[in-house]
Each structure stands twice: as structure tokens, then as C-alpha cells.
Amino acid sequence: MANQLRHYMLFTAMIFLANGSVASSPFVGVDVCANCHLEQYDQWQNSHHDLAMQKASANTVLGNFENQSFSYFGTTSTFFKEDSKYFVETDGPEGKLETFEIEYTFGVYPLQQYLVEFSDGRLQSLSIAWDSRSEEEGGQRWFHLYPEYQIKHTDPLHWTGLNQNWNFMCAECHSTNLTKNFDAKTNRYQTSWSEINVACEACHGPGKKHVAWAQLSGEDRQSKDNGLQVDLRNSAAWILNTGTDVASRSPESVSTDEVETCALCHSRRAAHQEPYTHGKKLLHSHLPAMLEEGLYFVDGQINDEVYVYGSFLQSKMYQQGVTCSDCHNPHTLRLKANGNELCSSCHLASRFDTPEHHFHSAESEGARCTACHMPEKTYMTIDDRADHSFHVPRPDLSIKLGVPNACTQCHQDQNNRWAAEKVQIWFPSNTRREKLHYGEIIHAGRRGDINASTWLADFIDDTSRPGIRRATAVSTLQNYINPETLPLIKKLLHDQDSLVRLNAIQAMEGLPPRIKTDFLVPLLTDDLKLIRIEAARVLADARHQIQSSNILAQLDLAIEEYIAAQNLNAERPEAHTNLGALYTSLQQLDNAETAYLKAIEIDPVFVPAYINLADLFRIQNMDEKSRIFIDKAIEIQPDSGLAHHSLGLWLVRRQNISRAMESLKKAAELEPNNSRFQYIYAVALDSNGQTEEAIKRLAAAHHQRPANRDLLYGLISYNQKAGKLEDARQYAKILVRVSPWDQNAKTILENL
Asked: Taking the model in full, what pTM does it have?
């Protein structure tokens, strides 16, 4: 009877499509899809996609709302029901206890969050969530997402704040055909969706044309396109041929459409276009994060909440053509097999699923493939997520770089040296330890080691390496742009990997306008929107030097696209700060000031906007105004090295040297790894007659950043001044070694 009722509902939905108002939308809804794809519909029901977001009701709310209380840093929140509605009494936007109605549930397992709607269209996600795991797992309780930190009502992480706003932070990935619809003039949202959850068309694209195609006769149907914007069918077979240990893909060629479709939500990224167009490359509408410091460990392992895409792109599996649906059922979202059986479908069990390979007893936790190659990290307090880069455990890198490894993650009573020795015993002939690892190269680049630029360039130039790693290396090479590396950057602007091209554009940001113009103009008409607008942003300060009206038109069009991309996120201070920087480059200083002030209005504690605005006033010789915003930045963030450095430079301009020294020293102490702050403070010390102290500062900074040319030039100059010619000579030798193209460095060494 239930099936008959469901089929009747599907049939009526089909009629409604033909006769009702839905016909005007390209999205038809899950019920219409189910009319032909009932098996997939049945699999999708009750999946995490199906339950991604729901209207709060007795059928959807998992939390205990029977007058339950939860205390957090002195604030007691109470969850209760009235009639069929759900409420929470908790600290509101003013820090006082208020009562809020729960409008929607958000997620389902291992935790469920709750959304409160405000009059301006904002939906805010409570930071107190329900642990939906079983009692045996420690669940069935209320808990706070930030249990170790007191998040006050003025903090952007407070549940009423910017960073818990559903419309910007969450909405695109938890509903279908979502349009944020933020109106910057009224500061209101009118966010809409065609379906509240992640339904068929969230992945497959709008289905109206597909339904029309399905209604054609057999011959007509065969002769026409199926009407879908993206083809997610995976017809690959993974074949373990005789004599091989790892399966190969048949056919060999693979489309990236599926992985990029999943990446829309399963990645750390920023949206630059609304709505998303199915079938387009991710870089047409979204900017994915690279393997940035803080987001990832230096060897590429997950650190912050980065989801899956950035990890998976690093893997050999991705390079060989593995896609998400090779392992995951795309409708149930469950794995296609349990435990090591899934891995053994492609990796020969008789070689890999044995104690001779994993060196653990067969039934132990350590015998699981994922225990070693997909270690988990906990997010949102209770949500364990696996690293999808499929690393080989390298405890030797933990010793060198301080990164985690799967061995000591399980054997917490042991140290990294113990683990490294075990691996050495188990795999004595393994040559991995003899080769430079990606993490070592990136570490050298970030530290400023003498060999860093050579190692980075060699790694980047090797197209067999994962694109996202090469792209991240390009962003690191940005600190080493010189006559030797510039030809490589120019070459990378036309690399086959779009992430590499994007980062090559960004690496040119500090170059003279003439060079940027020669290199970047061709990219203003690139097929990928993110490539076009990044090229335009970097070229903005060269606009006044462009003579061709045709090129100016291309640049202006791409700049308009960049402005539109930022205005899409006009509720965020970062977007207006980006616009302020763009307008400054374009010498539209009034517009820049307006943008920075808007960023501050949106988030009064967003320090970068204050610093940029202070610098904007500096370049206009408006030092009194500049000081106001520097002081405010320090008041908001007393441990901001950048703010104290800015104050020091302001005081230098006012000839207040003694106080300037205090601020420059504080900046250098707050950020000991910032070579620029160390150098400027050393210059101030020398100017104040403290040359020996300047040398000490520079020497300590040089130890941290051995290839930094400013530090080396300073050490040469001040050692000469102090009569320490041998020390000056040694630093000059290092300078020539790190910059053999620098004729001035050679001359200095010859003179010494």
C-alpha cells in the first residue's frame, strides 16, 4: 500500500510539472526524478544528503527538547517545546538570554545542529549541538562546538555572528538550487531553494530538459542529447590483471566532471558566482583553497576543516583516474564494501592485506588499510573525518617537520623515533627516505632555506606531480621571483593544470607593471572565470600603462567580473577589503576608502580593514587619519604584529624615534618569523646608534630565513660598519650563492 501511495504521489508530481507553476523552472524536483529513477530514489532516501536540512518537526528533531539545560562558561541555555514547536533560551546578539524558535534541523549524524531565523532573512546556526551518536558511543547529549573557548556575543564565532551564518557559510551545500539573494543596500537575505535538502538536481543539474527528452519516442530520444548539463555516469572497470598488484582503469581516459561536481561542496572554497552552472569547471565559479599553512600540515595532511577535495587531488588514486563513486555509492553515500574489502577490489589482497605488509595481527585495528593510509582527525568536537590523500606513513618526516603520522596517532605511548625505526626495519630497501619529499621542499620554501628556490622550481616543473601540490609550490615560489625563476612563472601561466596557472598569476603580483602586462594580458580572455578575474586583479595597478583600447576593454570587463564576484559576498568584510585593495590599485582612492569603511561597518573587529585603510590615508599624506585606524587596530587586537609595525613606521615619519623603536621592537617580538619586521627593526636600531644590536637581530632572523636577501644585505652592511669584514665576507658569499644573477652582490663580494 505504501509503494502504491508513493507511486501515486510521483504521478501527480509529474502532472504538476506539466500543468503547474513549477514548469517555469528548469528544476523539476526529486519526485519527478523518482518517476523513472526509483531505485536511485530509494537509495537516496534517509541518506545524509536527504537529511542535510529539514524543517523542524517531531519527525526531524533528534535533540532532547524536554526542558533540557546546558551550561557554557556561566551561560545556561534551555531547550524546550511548546505545542509542536521547538525553542531555545540562550544568549542572543546582545549577550542577554532570549528565547528563539528553532526553524530547521541541520545535518543528522554524528551531530545535529539547529537553525534560528531572524527578521532580516538570516539563518544562524546554534553553537550548541546535539550529539546524535548512541549512548554507548558517548552521544545523546547537548555539547558546545567550542568547549575550550569562551565565545562571547561580540565574537564572529558566536552563534549570532558572521561565521555562524547559514546563508553564507552553509546554505549552498545543504540545499538544491540555492540562491543566496543578499541585498547589500538593505542588508537582508531572501535566500531561496527549489528543495530544502541535497536532492537529485544538486548533483545532476536542472532536470526539465532531461524530462522532456525522456518523454520522446525511441528514435527521437536516441538522436538527441539527454538534456542534462553534466554526465556523471561512471562506466569504468578496475581490472586486476594477472601478475599485477594494483588494478588499472578501463577505459584509461577519465572525465573530471564527477570529482569537480562533488568538489562544489566537499572542498574548502569560496563562491564567486551565483548560481553554480553544472558541467562547468570548478574554477569557473569557485576558488578552492591550496595546501595553505594552517589548513594543511606542510606535507599535505589535513589540519583544519578542509573536507576532501584538496586531499584527494594529492593522491595517486586521483592521478590514476579513481573517482568518488568508485568507492562511495553516490546515492546512499555509503562505502561500496566494508573494511579492507573495498581496498582489495583494486589492491591485491594477497600482497597488501597481510601481516607481511602492514605488520599487525590480522584482526587488529592496525591491519585496516585506512588506519595507516587514511588517518582521521576530529572536527566539530566529535566528527572524525579521514584524510583522502592516501599518504604513506612517514614518521621520519614527523621528526624533521613536526607533522603527524598514523603510527604514533595509534601508538600514543610511543614517539616518532620509535615509529621511524620500526618502519626502517620493516622496509629496509625503501628509497622514499632518500628522496626530497614535497613537505621538505615546501618547508624549505616557507623557511627561506638557501636551496629553496631551486627545489621549488624543480618540483613545479615536474608535471607528473599532483597539480594542487605544484600550485601550492608556485605560491611559495612567489617569495623567490628573480631573473632565474621568472621564465618558469611565465611558462606556468600556460600550464595544463588550472590551479597551477591561477597561482602563477598570483605569484606575479609584486612585479613591475610592464612585466605583468607582457605576461598576463592573454589571460584576460581565458575560458575560466577565476583565471580572468585574478589576471585582472593583478594587472589593475598597470592599467594606466596600457595603450591599446582593445586590451583596456578586456581588462575593464574582467575587472567588472572581479567586482561582481566580490559583491556576491557583500555581507563579508573580506569582500570589501578585497575591493578596497582593487580600487587602490586602480587609483580610485575614494572608492577604496568607502570599501574599507564598509568592511569595518560589517565587522568592527576585522583588523585587516583598519590596517589597509590606515595605509590608504598614508599614501594620501593624511597621517592624522592614518593614526586613528592604527590605534583602533591595536585596541582590537593588541597582539597584532602588523598593527604595531604600522604604528612604528607612522612614528618614524613623525620623527618620534624613541617611541617608534618601542613599536617596531614589539612587532618584531610578536612575529619573530617575519623577516620584514626584523629587518626594519634592525635598520631602526642601527639608525639609533645600536649597530651591534642590529647585527644580533639580523643574525637571529637570518638563522630563521637563511636565503632572505634583505637580511643578508643588512648583515653585510652593518658588519662592514662595525669593522667585522670577515663576517661581512661570509654573508656576501651566501648572498651570491642564493642570488647568482645579482651583479651587485658579486661586486660587493669582490670589494670585500
From this structure: 0.94
